[in-house]
Each structure stands twice: as C-alpha cells, then as structure tokens.
Amino acid sequence: MRKFLTIVAALALCISATAQQAIFMAAPLKSPEINPDGTVTFRVRAPKAVSVTVSGEFVKGASSAAMVEKNGVWEYTTPEAVAPEMYPYTFSIDGVQTLDLSNAWVNRDVASLSSVLLVPGGRADLYTIQDVPHGTVSKVWYDSAVAGFDRRMTVYTPAGYEQNTKTRYPVLYVLHGIGGDEDAWVTQGRACQILDNLIAKGEAKPMIVVFTNGNISEEAAPLENSTGYTVASMGLPKTMEGTFETSFPEVVKFIDANYRTIAKKQSRAICGLSMGGFHTLYITLNNPDMFNYSGMFSAAIGTGSEQRGNAAIYGDMDKKIATYFSKKPALLWIGIGDADFLYKANTDFRAKLDAGKYPYEYMETGDGHVWKNWRIYLSEFVPKLFK
Amino acid sequence: MRKFLTIVAALALCISATAQQAIFMAAPLKSPEINPDGTVTFRVRAPKAVSVTVSGEFVKGASSAAMVEKNGVWEYTTPEAVAPEMYPYTFSIDGVQTLDLSNAWVNRDVASLSSVLLVPGGRADLYTIQDVPHGTVSKVWYDSAVAGFDRRMTVYTPAGYEQNTKTRYPVLYVLHGIGGDEDAWVTQGRACQILDNLIAKGEAKPMIVVFTNGNISEEAAPLENSTGYTVASMGLPKTMEGTFETSFPEVVKFIDANYRTIAKKQSRAICGLSMGGFHTLYITLNNPDMFNYSGMFSAAIGTGSEQRGNAAIYGDMDKKIATYFSKKPALLWIGIGDADFLYKANTDFRAKLDAGKYPYEYMETGDGHVWKNWRIYLSEFVPKLFK
Question: Of A96, A205, A335, B36, which has the highest C-beta tally within 10 A?
Fold first, then answer.
C-alpha cells in the first residue's frame, strides 16, 4: 500500500508543475460554497494582504463587499440567500483584481476573465448540466466567400442526431453581441444546457443550433484564430455595417449542405443579443423567405449604425418590413430590460410596428443590458419554435 | 460621430460589469510580450504590493523570478530568449498565487489554473493555430453500458470530413493521464492543432481522433458533468483497475457506428500518456485484433496497479504479449523522458520485449513526466500511422 501511495504521489507529477504545486500547497479552500441556508461563502488565502474584497452581482447596494481575515484566509458570506443565477465574480487583493483560484470555473467575457458562481434553482436549473441526454457541441470551420477566409462557428446537434440518421431537424441561428464571438452563447449564455434541458423536458423541439461569429473581420474567437493570441478589443472593423448580414446566406447554405436540416423557412429561426439582435433584424428583413421565427434580444437598433452602413442592407426599412410581414412569419419576438440603454430605441421600433399593425411578441424584464436577461430570453424564445 | 462613440461606449455595457470595468480601468498592460530578441516580458499592475514573482519553466535555475516595480507595474523580462514551447505560468503577489489577467489564455490542469504563454517556432509551430484547413472538434456523449450512464468524449474529424461524404477515415484513440479528462489533450496537449498542421503539411493522413475520458466513474470533465461543479481530485475511484479497459470496445463500437470510419484493425491506432499509456498497453493486449498501432507515452506501467486490479485484464501478460505480436501489429511505439520517475519501469518493459525479440520503436527525450514531452510524442507518433 505504501508503494501505491508513493506511486499516486508520483503520478501527480503527470500534471504540470503548477498543478503539482497546488496539490502539495496548503489545504485547498472551498470557494464558493453554497450554504444550506442559500447564502454563499467566498474564501481566499492572502496572509499578508491588508484589504480584500469580492465583486459580483450578489453583492447588494455596492460594487464590492469587504472580506474578513482569519488565520490568513479572507472570507465573505452573503447576508442573504443568493438568488438562483449565474454570477461572474472577482476578488480584489490590495487593489489587484484576481480570480478565485479555488474555483476552476473561469469565464472569458471579451478580454476580461472572471470566476463563476452558479446558484441552481428555478430558471437557473436550465443553466445547469442535468442528468439528461446531451447534444453534441462542435467547433466547425466554414469557407466564407464574403470574408475571404475560413471562419469558425459552434454547432449544437440535439441528442440522438447521430443515431437517428433518417431524421431531419429545424435550425436556430443564435448571434452574439459586440465584443463576443462564437463561444459567447455557449459559455456565458449556457445555451447548450438550456437546449438540452428544454428538449429533455419536452418543452422544445429537438433542433440544430448554430452560433456564428458576427465579427466578419475575424476568423474565430480570440485564442482560436491564426492571427495570434491577442484578445480583440471592442473596436473590431466591420461589425455593424452590413457585411456580416450580407454574408449570412452563405452560413445557412453551409449548414443546409452539411447537416440534416429541414431546409425551408418553416424550419428556420434566428435570434441574437445586442449587436446580434441588430444583425437578426436586418438579416431577417433582407431575407424575408429565410426565417419563420426571429428574436431580438436587447437589440442594438437605432444607434446610427444603420445610417453609416451599407444602404442596401439598412435602407428601405418600411418597404422591407411590409414585405416581411406580408409573408406571414410565425413569430417576431422582442425582449428588453427596463433599465437597458437601448430601451427607448426598442420602444420606438415597437411603436413603428404597432403603427403598421404588425404582430410581434414582447417581453420586458428588469435589469439592463446583461447576460442574465439574454439567458432568460433564449429560454423563453426556444420553446416557441417549430411548433 | 460623437453619438456613435457614445453608442460604442454604451454597447460596452452589453458585456458584464466585470468586462466593462476592465475597459474603463487603467490602460491594459501587454503581458506576456514576446520581444523581437526572443526574450519575454511579463507585467502585472500591483501598486501596493511588496513582492511579486513569476513562476514558469522559462525561469531558469529557480522556481520563480522576482519582478521589478515601476509606477505600480511589476515587470520581468527573461534574461535570454525563451525557447519555442507552451508554458503555463502564474504570478505570486505578496504570496498569493494569481493568474495574468492581461492574458485571456487560461489553462486548467486538474484543479489548477494557470496562464499560458506559447512561444512559436520550431516544433512549437505545430502547437499554434495556422492558416490551414481546420478539423471539427466535437464534444459528444455516448451511452456507456459498463459505466451505467452517458459519458463525454472529444472527437476530432479532419478538415473535409463533412464535405467528403463518401470517404471513410482511420481512427486514432488518444488517452489522458491520471487527473485528466477528455479535454486535457485538446487544451494542454494542443492535439487538434498538431493534427491540423501535420495533415495540412501532408505529414499525417487525415484521420478521426477520439479523446476519451479514462475516469470511468466520471460522466465528463469537471464543470461538464451533472454531478456538480467541484473539480475532481486525483483520487477518483476505478482509474487503473481494469474497468476502463474493459469498457473500451464499447467506445470503438460507438465511434464505428456514428462516424465514417474504416472499421478494421489496419485503420485503428491508440496512444496515451501516463495512466493513458498504461490503459493503451492493456487495451491493446486484451484486444489484439483491434489496433494496428499503439503508442505508450511515459506509460504508468509497473506501479503495482496491475497486481491490485482485474486479473482478467492484467494477468497472463507473457501470453498476451506473444499473441499480440503473433498478429504482426504495424507499430508499438514507446516514448519516455530520461528524467521520468517511470523511466525504470519502461526500461524494464523494453527489456522484456527485447528478451522476446518483439519489435517496437523507442524515443527517449530529456525532461520528465511533463506535457512538453507528450506533445512531442504525439507529433512523432501521428505521422507513422496508416501509411
């Protein structure tokens, strides 16, 4: 037995020096810890620190909460139960922002990293990995004639897709916001968990879901492209000027050519958040025979991009809207938070639809331009599709 | 224009408060920065810190190097050019280990996180994303009768797989070490980049590559299973006692049923590192008609696990070896570092093969039981397959 333990310790060497170091360092801390009463405790070891705080939306009434030190370990327990939700958070140790290295769950949001707490329960149970059949999640490259290079997308095929080789599936295209990429909905949006869980409960039809990269100047997400490892800033070229919208039919063509889709309008949906909501609107209007369901989540419309961009894509709105609705799409869905800086632009757009007596569904939530809302909107939108 | 800039700033809100904060905080630091002379500079802002160090294998002759402060930013430049390689690294700020938050590339190694530096050049160019056709990388779940639940694997299909619908492909199975999972070879092993690049150069045949999870008690990698978000320790049950080896034919059956494989021995290979090398040996010997190519990378043989485990899997070695070689496999490949704690066990195993006049190929490198070696071994092994 002694030899075995020696071997296990030695096998620990099969991981890097860093991991090895962690194993032989001080006892690991449990952080975050969801307590039986629903409060959450965060811990970080920093014996020499003078001040340690934790930041996250579970901190109420302030941007951060002071942690308290005992034996070199700083701790903070929320005063109340934390509502079910996915929360990014960070620590600040003497003014230096750090992750919670006791927690392996790290999220990248554009160029920023944070640790992640997920409190299950209620709607947040849709965001957790349940013991249900899981779809396949693939990173796929397609040749973009418009961009002039290969580009990456994420494709979700529902559980059973590989086995049911005679079955064809409807397709939902899901678009990210500015600064995001083809990973954003999968990581921060928990879209694959939402799909797995809604399908398993019978609340959504099995469907293929395609997460594109809406930054047409990019091959792929940061760290996933051949142009190096620098994370893109918010200032990418060609994000809201018409090129991505122009290119979208080639995405649909690729998916229809490479997956067992039902390649017709009745079985196609599209939605997106912020810039992706803007893209959704203009892709839909410029291709009125392509999508039967369109979802605008906190759409970044009315920002002036329409005036600066490609007139062929953004012009003739009234006429395009009339044509689109004349073809009787099954659903135009609009969701926005009442604190969103795009609230007025979306209200104005709805007034325009109302004036034309054009039908749409509307959901207004609290909060602003945040992932919390976009997870809600996706989980509301998906059950309405392909019924 | 002013309105546009306001909107861009507002759109920054479409990402989380954390990301937003980063954007409006002090100017971002460039870290790590590969300088024209090949040295690398690391930077971290910590105005109140007393001592900051950086740890990584680029630090020579010590476990860490002191960084020097100027205007609140701590900096370290390596004294010499850093050799092309992938390096995990961390900072220590007044004794608290942290990641480099200027660098979005984070690696998880079992439960430990580190930042990643990749210095291109030489063999390390195989580890970078090049402007070549990319394969599809999928996370796929299969129903394991042996485990009693669905389990996750990573499947790489080479560029063109989707389009060349009449083509069937050989399959390589790639196994991880103790503490690892179905993500390890993809993240730390850079296996998909190695495959993309070797195939693009014509140095490897297009092949399907399957990365299994060798922890048969687990559904999936940490953070990817339904049992919660705790990262598994090294002490998982049933890692080297025969169950995973017993279950392996069901993996092969699943792949043959769901992918366009050439479902015969001549077109199947298997390899693995450490525990995965151990698994490779016993899966191969117990299924002598299954694999034509087997690669043992720093294999964790001779640790006593064989004596404690399932005798049906680990017993009758001499007879199984004789049977295996009697069927004339194309290649048994063994690689190990001269500083590996398993060096002697592998030397003993080779002596046994030599005594029986059994053919194998052998590669001995420097260093020990580290990912650097496993990336080398994979990139040496793959070009030998299916020729």
Answer: A335
Chain A: closest CA distance from residue B15 (Å): 7
Strand pairing partners for B364? B336
Q: What is the pLDDT of residues A255-265, one digit of tens each?
A: 999 999 999 99
The model's pTM = 0.94
Contact B133 A139 (CB under 8 A): no
A-to-B residue pairs, Cβ atoms closer than 8 angstroms: 277
Nearest-10 Cα torsion for B161, B164, B170, B174: 0
B109–A15: do the CB atoms touch at under 8 Å?
yes
Reading the block at residue B37, the tokens are 């002379």
| Contacts for A317 with CB less than 8 Å, ≥ 6 apart | A285, A306
Neighbours of B348 (CB within 10 A): 11
CA distance A68 to A62: 17
* Residue A179, token pair as written in the block: 């600064």
Per-residue model confidence as pLDDT tens digits over A315-370? 999 999 999 999 999 999 999 999 999 999 999 999 999 999 999 999 999 999 99
Q: Which of B11, B55, B94 sits opposite A48 (nearest CB)?
A: B94
Among residues A245, A254, A256, the alpha carbon closest in space to that of A175 is found at A245
Could you report the predicted ipTM of this complex, rounded to two decimals? 0.93
Distance CA B184, CA B112 (A): 12
**Residues 189-218, chain A: which have Cβ within 8 Å of B?**
none
